Amino acid sequence: MGMATEAQFHVLAVDDSLIDRKLIERLLKTSSYHVTAVDSGSKALEFLGLNGSHEDGQRNPSPASVSLDEDQHQQDVEVNLIITDYCMPGMTGYDLLRRIKGSSSFKDIPVVIMSSENIPSRINRCLEDGAEEFFLKPVQLSDVNKLRPHLMKGRSKEMQQNISKRKGMEEILTPDRTRTRYNELEVV
Amino acid sequence: MERNPMRRQLAIMRQSLFDQGYLDEQFIQLEELQDDANPNFVEEVVTLYYRDSARIILNLEQALERKPFDFNKLDGLMHQFKGSSSSIGAKKVKAECTLFREYCKSGNGEGCTRAFQQLKREYATLKRKLEAYFQLARQAGPAETACCRKE
């Protein structure tokens, strides 16, 4: 099959705090993830190749001089998960979440929010709007361990899509086998 | 049990930082992220904290010189500072941050000024103690085995 099954997961970490960036980077690397850490939501979007060209009222100064169509940057850099601080100047983590989930290219990337403030309405809003997890700061190793299932799900979905593409019309499970399995339940 | 007397002294120093409330559980989390590949992680983070937070302290000082106080701005700055302090496990400093923020919320300028003075004292005390701790750690050399590291 030749799939890079053991390729490292790549996590994009977003936090305006230098200390917290160092911390999250170390936590993620300890878990064997490849990490890119940026200090703002707009830099995160820039890294993904999603700049503000489609958004009106985007107040962040975008250094990108070329206005690129979103589709041209279909995962130039593969990111398997985004973990972002909530409270950041300019674009909040919530704003970033909305941008990611509103993007056809990137909406399937799991997003995790971190915050030092335990505000239930904030937490609920993030989870309702697509965040997979909400971590209270300071983030710990036990929190980072919760990321793996979200990453594995993304990878298995990706592999499934690749398998379907390669096999074309061929069915993975023949109807006969499926029927047999469900009809022959035996008490062991 | 550490056989090296310096290591024993280091362990005692470390324990007292917790017992006296200077550090909390988060510091232990940092220690757990330290390993052979990243042997100075804790000291690196603490050094970064003192460097980075010096800037915030300066901003707070400047903001506290402008009357009337902009409590929103002060609270915003303190939120940042509290976050960093919390990330390194600076327990007393974090408590002073919380107090300051409460004064901001109630618009108590005098309270803010007092709390800030106290905060700077705690901040400086912790810095001194951690510097001494890391200096001793360097002199004491690496732990004999990993299991004794946190004794």
| Principal-axes shape call of chain A | globular
CATH topology of chain B: Four Helix Bundle (Hemerythrin (Met), subunit A)
Widest beta sheet: strand line-up of chain A: 2-1-3-4-5
Largest sheet geometry of chain A = 5 strands, parallel
| Second-tier CATH architecture of chain B | Up-down Bundle
- Would you identify the regions of chain A where 5 or more consecutive residues have pLDDT less than 50? 53-74, 178-183
Q: Strand-residue fraction of chain B?
A: under 5%
Oligomer: heterodimer
Give the topology string of chain A: H per helix, E per strand: EHEHEHEHEHHH
Structurally, how many domains make up the residues of chain A? 1
What Rg of chain B do the Cα atoms give?
18 Å
By helix and strand content of chain A, what is the structural category? alpha/beta
CATH architecture of chain A: 3-Layer(aba) Sandwich
Q: What is the CATH domain class of chain B?
A: Mainly Alpha
Taking pLDDT < 50 over at least 5 consecutive residues as the criterion, the unreliable ranges of chain B are none
Give the CATH H-level superfamily of chain B: HPT domain
Number of structural domains of chain B? 1
Task: Tell me what you see in this structure.
The complex is a heterodimer of chains A (188) and B (151). Chain A has 188 residues and is an alpha/beta fold. Helices cover 38% and strands 13% of the residues of chain A. Chain A has helices spanning 18-30, 41-48, 93-101, 120-128, 141-144, 148-167, 175-183, and strands at 10-14, 34-38, 81-85, 111-115, 133-136. In chain A, strands 2-1-3-4-5 form a five-stranded parallel beta sheet, with helices on both faces. Chain A is globular, with a radius of gyration of 19 Å. The relative contact order of chain A is 0.14. Residues 53-74 and 178-183 of chain A have low confidence and may be disordered. Chain B is mainly α and 151 residues long. Chain B has a single domain (5-141), classed as HPT domain (Four Helix Bundle (Hemerythrin (Met), subunit A), Up-down Bundle). Chain B is built from six helices and no strands. The radius of gyration of chain B is 18 Å and the shape is elongated. The A-B interface holds A 17-20, 22-23, 26-27, 30, 87, 116, 137-138, 140-141 and B 26, 29-30, 32-33, 38, 41, 44-45, 48-49, 52, 79-80, 82-84, 86-88. Chain A: Keywords: Nucleus, Phosphoprotein, Transcription, Transcription regulation, Two-component regulatory system. Chain A: This is Two-component response regulator ARR8. Chain A: Residues 10-152 form the Response regulatory domain.
